Amino acid sequence: MPEHQWRGRATLAAAAAGALVAASACSPGSTSGAGSGELAGVELLVAAKWTGVEQDNFTEVLAAFEEETGATVNYESTGEDTGAYLGPKIEAEEPPDIAILPQPGLVAEYAEQEALVPLSGDAATALEENYTDYWRELGSVDGEPYGVLLKAAHKSIVWYRPDAFDEAGVSAPETWADLTGETASTLSDAGVTPFSMCGASGWTLTDWFENVYLSQHGPEAYDQLIAREIPWDDDTVVETLETLAEVWGEEDWLAGGTDGAVQTDFPTCVTEVYGQENAAMVYEADFVAASAQEAGATVGEDAQAFPFPAVGEEPPVVVGGDIAVAMTEKEGVQQLMAYLASPEAQTTWAGLGGYLSANSEVQPDAYPDEFTQTLAQTILEAGDNVRYDLSDQVPSQFGATEGKGMWAVLQDFLRDPSDPEAAAADLEEAAASAE
């Protein structure tokens, strides 16, 4: 899709629900047609962090597999700390049959512990046929396929209040220079605070960093930074921090000033924009839509979004998401993995809303609204330029632990962004310690 179409569509609704759309084409793992009942009497356990609507939608996806095969698939929530849930179960040799992991780093960790079962048969075929090289490699360890990216999150969009933009006479920026040189400064001059920051939730700051770094320095450097082929005190990291300081260093641009920026968590930062109207913009992923609705906003009307502005030649496309892996060799496990990797299963979930797929065979009209269709297409059409969340690919002690590593260093940098070189040195020290 041409970039101008994405920009035009990016203000449309991200609906919470929609019509159920069934795939017509059969594929490995398909449940189309009359039920075979081949797994009658088989009972499987799937564990993931999802609760509420996410859990309800996922169990609806599983229901089609149960109806076709006769298997019973039970669901158990891991809670937010998937590792804390799985660790004791692996130790006791009682893991779930399939686990949904929130970080690719956990795939490698559990594969090294020999706690995972590689994909085989129709499951391996479905992965090969339905996903591009990048997504297949993301769930592989030493060339062995283990994981299927089941649910994606688009982390390269900025949410805003159109009434605030209209009041200041500004439009959605296309580049970082537009954002800092015109949009934010004009909003501030008009008496509207540009940004609500979610700094108390350190993972949101890593997302800021990833988007700027990917756009400013490109996917090759991004991959090298993850692999520590580039150190964290490299000039590219310093330059990214300097770019972030163009926003983070403007205290008047942040709701509550610097103190407010560091002390506000997610989703309170969304409420500051849409419930309290203390700011015009908040950066975070497509899942902001749910929080905006809870704050009383109508998504697509008074809650709209634009792509994360391009810092370099290309705008960034950063994706997070959840990866399904097999943990036992029980009968039915590989069949269920094949189904989860199929366009049929993911088309069903797409039609329920609140979902994005990286499966190349899921068609745009599977999604219930134009905005979500566009987000899904940008993931697929970004090709070699799309990248998975960096902080979820490095050791968790560095990239995903409260009070440590990237979270702590970037929170300190948000408090005082005056010394990017020192912050980069702190990042390198934390990365080395995590190894």
From TrEMBL:
Superkingdom of the organism of origin: Bacteria
Coiled-coil spans in chain: none
One Pfam family linked to the record: SBP_bac_1
Record key words, sorted: Transport
InterPro entries cross-referenced by the UniProt entry: Bact_solute-bd_prot1 (IPR050490), SBP (IPR006059)
Family statement drawn from the similarity comment of this UniProt entry: Belongs to the bacterial solute-binding protein 1 family.
Name of the protein: Alpha-glucoside transport system substrate-binding protein
